């Protein structure tokens, strides 16, 4: 084949690629859909476990629903700390927690029943289960969000969800806004009071 024809074919292909590239670039700018920044901020706070316990197929759809006014207390893995963060972000009051709070659960694997099928590993959205094929698996409790997605795929029913006992690390410490704490300023002789809620002349 004549080299002139080869160069001509290459040139035509390059020209077509350039035209299509320009069209795609123009379309990406012209048809760009701007994402709602509040949705992105809410989604960044969510645990990204994609467990569906909130009633939505994933964290992003739930973030969109919260931005549109849905309840901020539906994320079980996030728990009360997440509710506080979402309330602060949305500029709303933290919902009343006097009602019964969902219990924090974590998965455990009864290792004597585990056959090493790896199905639970594939189902875990946060990589909280470790193990290899035909070898015993175990759950890293600190990473487990309690989504229960690993329970159903297990063919030997060796996975159980148990309650997490509160510890000093997991306890929901709540500060009393009306608390008055006496402290001494080291630069002054007169003791002072730190008041949680500022009072305006007793009003």
TrEMBL record:
Chief subcellular location: membrane
Gene Ontology biological process terms from the UniProt entry: electron transport chain
Any single GO CC term annotated in Swiss-Prot or TrEMBL for this entry: plasma membrane
Residues holding [4Fe-4S] cluster 1: 51, 54, 59, 75
A Pfam family assignment: FeS
Keyword Nucleotide-binding: no
Keywords associated with the record: 4Fe-4S, Cell inner membrane, Cell membrane, Electron transport, Iron, Iron-sulfur, Membrane, Metal-binding, Repeat, Translocase, Transmembrane, Transmembrane helix, Transport
Gene3D superfamilies assigned: 3.30.70.20, Electron transport complex subunit B, putative Fe-S cluster
Gene Ontology terms, MF aspect: 4 iron, 4 sulfur cluster binding; electron transfer activity; metal ion binding
Cofactor: [4Fe-4S] cluster
E.C. designation(s): 7.-.-.-
Cited InterPro entries: 4Fe-4S_dom (IPR007202), 4Fe4S_Fe-S-bd (IPR017896), 4Fe4S_Fe_S_CS (IPR017900), Elect_transpt_cplx_RnfB/RsxB (IPR010207), RnfB/RsxB_Proteobac (IPR016463), RnfB_subfamily (IPR050294)
Amino-acid positions noted as binding [4Fe-4S] cluster 2 in the UniProt annotation, renumbered to this chain: 114, 117, 120, 154
Residue ranges constituting the 4Fe-4S domain according to the UniProt record: 34-92
Start and end residues of each 4Fe-4S ferredoxin-type domain: 105-134, 135-164
Locations listed in the record: Cell inner membrane
Family from the record: Belongs to the 4Fe4S bacterial-type ferredoxin family. RnfB subfamily.
Subunit structure: The complex is composed of six subunits: RnfA, RnfB, RnfC, RnfD, RnfE and RnfG.
Protein name: Ion-translocating oxidoreductase complex subunit B
Species annotation: Frederiksenia canicola
Gene expressing this chain: rnfB
